[in-house]
Amino acid sequence: MSGDARNGATALRKTAEALTYLSGFGNEHSSEAVPGALPQGRNSPQRVPLGLYAEQLSGSAFTEPRAHNRRSWLYRIRPSAAHPAFTRTDNGALRSAPFTESVPDPNRLRWNPLPEPAPGTDFLAGLWTLGGNGDATQRTGMAVHLYHANSSMERVFSDADGELLIVPEQGGLLLRTEFGLLHVEPGHVALIPRGVRFRVELLGDASDDARTTHPTARGYVCENYGAPFQLPDLGPIGANGLANPRDFRAPVAAYEDAEADGHTAEPVEVVNKFCGNLWTAMYDHSPLDVVAWHGNHVPYTYDLRLFNVIGTISYDHPDPSIFTVLTSPSDTPGLAGVDFVVFAPRWLVGEDTFRPPYFHRNVMSEYMGLIEGAYDAKAEGFVPGGGSLHNMMSAHGPDRETFERASAAELRPQKIDDGLAFMFETRWPVTATAQAAHAEHLQASYDDVWQGLERHFRAGGRP
Ligand SMILES: O=C(O)Cc1cc(O)ccc1O
Ligand SMILES: [Fe+2]
């Protein structure tokens, strides 16, 4: 990395670390980068302050119930409508629902991390689809993507097909969005709502040493075609707990204006994912030109280590739905299109209890990833940046080594704080893409982790 590039990365990180945010989940936020830019008392005045254009961005139908209604008003230098025609561009390794390249596979599958990307791979080019379900054109289902990038985006991306839940595993990210800037590090997540334009810039590792090497970024993305993620109901848990609403952070308004001092704006490539395909157009200005905004269809971040973990203080452990950070409800109450679940550091105190995840078969399909460290059901082979897929009704649970260790362990209070795992759990089976089903980094003998689980049964006697 050249001295200039290093200074650039350091400056970018300083920008990221100095950001301020608005607090709260689902709020009616408002923000202005220039005082007086936000119209007061109405959304669409005859003339918008400072000569801005008013524009509504709808994330729900106008007519959806108030509790589900999502829209924001953006006050921008140019209206979004001022752009040339989009033309098709290469989808790269991005695939969309319906997933028809492979037959749905009942086998337990596990992948190692993605291989190194070619030089100059930005976040968008680095997206690699593992699989998913539903239909992007019907706004149902979800896709699991991974990304591995080594270059900041210069172009801008938006996804008409769904919202993007970005789960970094390596490398900090600066997200420049229409609503302002967001900073995420591994252990945080970011949510870009449907249709919101953004650019991903790479910050590298938070430690100084790593910043002297070329920044790379790796992680996971859940593309949710269905209803926007919301906080789960808490039921008997009460009014507090799990992910607390005030810990979600939305950006403050910030805009790009290359023409500010009479300069000519550089053309900006804008890529739009629409019904499964990528489309591109060259804009004569940056679409990240929103000077003020208000509304509830906004991007946000959340630090997973702030998750208030609830579990047993007697015996057994609750089903992992107790670890739900965000849920996308489907049309059947209690049955999520997709849940985002985190296995955060926590104490295990259950008495006379097999403490790791139990053996089970689940009508829901579970994709699991690892952000850091280890996961308590797997002694080895499930590594940060890798992932496992336990599809509808497939039998899974602790590997042999974990089973033997946990069955013999002395049950003292034990802190699990050596890892951060997550799950995208969906009501529909996940069909792998061809590239995932035939990937070199697909593990050949995952089934073997359950080999050698010996018979201990003796009729008429205790083992
Ligand atoms: O499969 C997994 O590891 C996730 C999981 C954890 C747990 O404690 C119970 C059920 C479950 O699906
Ligand atoms: Fe499971």
Automatic annotation (TrEMBL):
| Catalyses which reaction(s) | homogentisate + O2 = 4-maleylacetoacetate + H(+)
Q: Where is the Homogentisate 1,2-dioxygenase C-terminal domain?
A: 306-457
InterPro entries per the record?
A: HgmA_C, HgmA_N, Homogentis_dOase, Homogentis_dOase_bac, RmlC-like_jellyroll, RmlC_Cupin_sf
Q: Which residues form the active site?
A: H317 (proton acceptor)
Listed under GO biological process in this entry are: L-phenylalanine catabolic process; L-tyrosine catabolic process
Q: Where is this region: Disordered?
A: 86-109
Kindly list the GO molecular function terms attached to this UniProt entry: homogentisate 1,2-dioxygenase activity; iron ion binding
**Record: residues binding homogentisate:** Y375, H396
**Which cofactors does this protein require?**
Fe cation
Q: Which CDD domains match?
A: cupin_HGO_N
Q: What's a GO cellular component annotated to this UniProt protein?
A: cytoplasm
Kindly give the NCBIfam families that the UniProt entry links to this protein: hmgA
Per the similarity annotation, which family is this? Belongs to the homogentisate dioxygenase family.
Function noted in UniProt: Involved in the catabolism of homogentisate (2,5-dihydroxyphenylacetate or 2,5-OH-PhAc), a central intermediate in the degradation of phenylalanine and tyrosine. Catalyzes the oxidative ring cleavage of the aromatic ring of homogentisate to yield maleylacetoacetate.
| Protein's name according to its UniProt entry | Homogentisate 1,2-dioxygenase
Q: What is the lineage of its organism?
A: Bacteria, Bacillati, Actinomycetota, Actinomycetes, Kitasatosporales
Query: Per UniProt, what is the name of the gene that codes for the protein in this document?
Result: hmgA
